[in-house]
């Protein structure tokens, strides 16, 4: 598995330059209602995501990682799965910013254009992709994420535990759903959450623009 | 086997040894209704489906756990089996009016192996607070010594060669309704107000007997 590919890393992450800032979601905290409540955003962004950013800052202060781009910290602390201490906070800070940007008010449903064409090419149909993404999100045991990713000119669904993301697995990340336990507790209806995300929240515009960047970086 | 004598799940969703509202205000009835009534129940139900028709069907829960751990390369039934076991053990680790400093032999051994109860408290607290993502923190007994262990997801000390004596569930579903993201407050409440020292002491006796 590739671990450090500067060109890919820079192009695909152009939209996410966290640099240890708690960037707000690109919509008001109540804008995803009724599908994702303001209360969830207040906690998930306002407390959990904020804590990852704050703790990362404390963790890298005075170290050689201080001031380095977030993606650099993630790549350099993954350590082939034997995680160095800053990894979890750095990756979770990155993952959460990416997650907010993966959603939009009035989102979800079937995409169109090139993205649909590629989904149909690599999964046979949008419905097959939907089922595979759904299954990955439903079966990631414990805390983690499910992703649509792009590697070797192909789309694929990936699931990862805890803070791990496809960046360290050599893929471009396009979209994902946070399978962290925080949502499991919420009535434990994980499948309902995943369905709501797919049907009502996904920002296909964000996914499409990331796909363009991924293809450009791969060519 | 001796250490798990009190937990013979056999794929039954055993209720906690107290009413679902009995741990209030430290752990709400709503938490118990979801955590036991939905999450724990799902592990038991899914395990039953998973082993139906297989060679594991009808085997004791501990047998399934030991035989599907596979040195960390988990076989499919492991997560449901271990989570069923862990949760029953967790409910029995608590009691209404629990918590606080133990006494007698348990205290003596904590002082022997951790220097003081306070040192044990801090170590257990740190393990529970730093288990990233989903998991558990444990007081366990191995090689005639008490120790604190933290495990990810469904892993428990049975597969690591120790006798579990006490556990706290630090999956977010265990504390989110009552504490949201304030895991440290949850851990403190568990230690000060919920731990059943009687359960821990009786498991310790069983562990010592099995080790001798």
TrEMBL record, chain A:
Put simply, this protein is called: Superoxide dismutase
Family according to the record: Belongs to the iron/manganese superoxide dismutase family.
According to the UniProt entry, its GO molecular function terms are: metal ion binding; superoxide dismutase activity
Q: Quote the catalytic activity from the record.
A: 2 superoxide + 2 H(+) = H2O2 + O2
- What species was this sequence derived from? Brassica campestris
Domain named Manganese/iron superoxide dismutase C-terminal: residues: 111-210
Q: Which UniProt keywords apply?
A: Iron, Metal-binding, Oxidoreductase
Query: Gene3D superfamilies under this entry?
Result: Fe,Mn superoxide dismutase (SOD) domain, Iron/manganese superoxide dismutase, C-terminal domain
Residues in Manganese/iron superoxide dismutase N-terminal domain copies: 20-104
Enzyme class at the top of the EC tree: oxidoreductase
- Coiled-coil features, chain-numbered ranges: none
Pfam families noted in UniProt: Sod_Fe_C (PF02777), Sod_Fe_N (PF00081)
Task: Give residues annotated as binding Mn(2+).
Answer: 44, 96, 178
Task: Report the InterPro entries cross-referenced here.
Answer: Mn/Fe_SOD, Mn/Fe_SOD_C, Mn/Fe_SOD_N, Mn/Fe_SOD_N_sf, SOD_C_sf
Automatic annotation (TrEMBL), chain B:
Q: What superkingdom does the record give?
A: Eukaryota
- One GO molecular function term? metal ion binding
Manganese/iron superoxide dismutase C-terminal domain residues are: 102-202
Compartment annotation: Plastid, Chloroplast
Q: What is its EC number?
A: 1.15.1.1
Residue ranges of domain Manganese/iron superoxide dismutase N-terminal in the record: 11-95
Task: Report the cofactors.
Answer: Fe cation
User: What Gene3D superfamilies is this protein classified in?
Assistant: Fe,Mn superoxide dismutase (SOD) domain, Iron/manganese superoxide dismutase, C-terminal domain
Record's keyword terms, sorted: Chloroplast, Iron, Metal-binding, Oxidoreductase, Plastid
Q: Keyword Plastid, does the record have it?
A: yes
Cellular component (GO) terms are: chloroplast
Q: Which residues bind Mn(2+)?
A: 35, 87, 169, 173
Alphabetical list of InterPro entries matching this protein:
Mn/Fe_SOD, Mn/Fe_SOD_BS, Mn/Fe_SOD_C, Mn/Fe_SOD_N, Mn/Fe_SOD_N_sf, SOD_C_sf
The keyword Iron appears for this protein: yes
Q: What is its main location?
A: plastid
Q: What does this protein do?
A: Destroys radicals which are normally produced within the cells and which are toxic to biological systems.
Membership in a protein family? Belongs to the iron/manganese superoxide dismutase family.
Query: PANTHER family in the record, alphabetically?
Result: SUPEROXIDE DISMUTASE, SUPEROXIDE DISMUTASE [FE] 1, CHLOROPLASTIC
Its recorded name reads Superoxide dismutase
Write down the species.
Answer: Brassica campestris
Classification from the root reads: Eukaryota, Viridiplantae, Streptophyta, Embryophyta, Tracheophyta
């Amino acid at each position: 598995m590739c671990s450090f590919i500067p060109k890919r890393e820079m192009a695909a992450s152009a939209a996410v330059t966290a640099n240890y800032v708690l960037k707000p979601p690109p919509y008001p905290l109540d804008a995803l209602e009724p599908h994702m409540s303001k209360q969830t955003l207040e906690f998930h962004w306002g407390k959990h995501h904020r804590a990852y950013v704050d703790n990362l800052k404390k963790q890298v202060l005075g170290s050689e990682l201080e001031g380095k781009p977030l993606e650099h910290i993630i790549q350099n602390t993954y350590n082939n799965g034997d995680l160095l201490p800053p990894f979890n906070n750095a990756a979770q800070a990155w993952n959460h910013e990416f997650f907010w940007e993966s959603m939009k008010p009035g989102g979800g449903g079937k995409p169109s254009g090139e993205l649909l064409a590629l989904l149909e090419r690599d999964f046979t149909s949008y419905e097959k992709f939907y089922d595979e993404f759904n299954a990955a999100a439903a079966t990631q045991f414990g805390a983690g994420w499910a992703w649509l990713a792009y590697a070797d000119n192909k789309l694929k669904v990936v699931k990862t535990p805890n803070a791990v993301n496809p960046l360290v697995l050599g893929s471009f990340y396009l979209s994902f759903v946070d399978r962290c336990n925080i949502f499991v507790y919420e009535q434990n209806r994980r499948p309902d959450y995943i369905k709501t995300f797919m049907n009502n929240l996904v920002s296909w515009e964000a996914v499409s623009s990331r796909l363009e960047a991924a293809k450009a970086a791969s060519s």
